[in-house]
Give the backbone structure.
Amino acid sequence: MKSEELKNIVKKKYGRIAEQSSEESSCCSSSCCGPQVDYTVFSENYEAKEGYNPDADLNLGCGIPTDFAEIKKGGHVLDLGSGAGNDCFVARAIVGETGKVTGLDMTGQMIRKAKENCLKLGFSNVGFVLGDIEKMPFADETFDVVISNCVLNLVPDKSKAFSEIYRVLKSGGHFCVSDVVIKGKLPAGLKNDAEMYAGCVAGASEMDEYLGIIRKKGFADIAVHKQKEISIPDDLLAKYVTKEELDSYRTKEKGIFSITVSAIKPT
């Protein structure tokens, strides 16, 4: 699938999600990914987080990157694929009145929803920008911290994405992202079908390859803080793999995982 074609599919899907209620818009719920598919097990509970706003939580994440991002009061944070603003508002509670949070999303409906939520909250130091992660509309060395939640797996060219993250981070700044990766070699039938579910594992890289891209872009102190396996039901797996492949998938170190990883742009 060509890069622009994939992006258009993602835009259309997330545009629909933005117009649905949060109850209906969970990642890979039956409303957006087909029958009997539900990966909401990866969504983390934000309710106890300061700054949490239920109107901004569409249950589309696969972690809570702000837990490990070491955001400081007064800092400037960029959230990639900011959606309705959930992680932005949590980050804003950390940076406080003297800080700033910017959300970037390529879906117009999401930007509008996020701005509506921000207006209701009355925040003047949170903004949302329409743009592409592979070519961000920001100057070099603008941000102290970059976060993202289950979005970079949707970016066709992850090398460009991490190059852009490196560019917009200040010297000594860092990123912390939660994302979906693959471990081991999955059966072709499973992998090809899973990639159709934009927003869950479409475009997901093999974990070592993913970390390798980060390293090649010049980042240091790469750390995986958390990982969790996506549990795909056996009855769904059986549609795409043989019994032997299913047994291998269940017993070996292979599968689809969410990870939260951070790294620093060296001074």
Q: What stands out?
A: Residues 22-39 have pLDDT under 50 and may be disordered. The chain has one domain: 3-67+129-264. The first strand starts at residue 76 and ends at 80. The chain is about 30% helix and 20% strand.
